[in-house]
Amino acid sequence: LAANRLAAYSGKISSAGFNLGQFVNNTDLGIIALDGHVKGNGFKLKDLDADFDGKIHRLDFSGYHYQHITVKGTFQKNLFKGAFAIDDPNLKISNGNGIISLAGEQSKFDIDAVLLYSNLGQLNLTPEDYSLSGHFNLQFVGNNIDNFLGTARVYDAKLYHDSTRLAFDSLILTSMVD
Length: 178
Known about the structure:
By secondary structure, the protein is mostly beta strands. Helices cover 3% and strands 65% of the residues.
């Protein structure tokens, strides 16, 4: 290859366990295991421009091992744009689409999705077991409630603490720095 040309590739990709967090220099991320088809250019993160269509069997993020993620989208450097669904025992999402950026110190999310089920305690998002479902529109920076900046809109929501339903059906949460 010429010095100014990026490597191009197209084919099947499979990994039983790759340390994605170390590759992208993000401590919130850990191991990823996946199978799918990829077509793109560049192997270094600063040059990466690849389309991916496949399944992520495991993705470690903020202390939880997410499973059974279906993804179709484009990865450009630290940015993902595309569609996804999740069928994890503690998180079920359908019709997910949007943008996720892992650049910088904080992860950024711009996502629209239908959350069919979530166990927030098991996902390490709350200290107790809460389950939540609804239609979500998220535009925020951060990886937990302590560093959340942005807006989260939830429609047709159902929130339970253990088996008790907590009363609300929609919520708009905005957090900003003055």
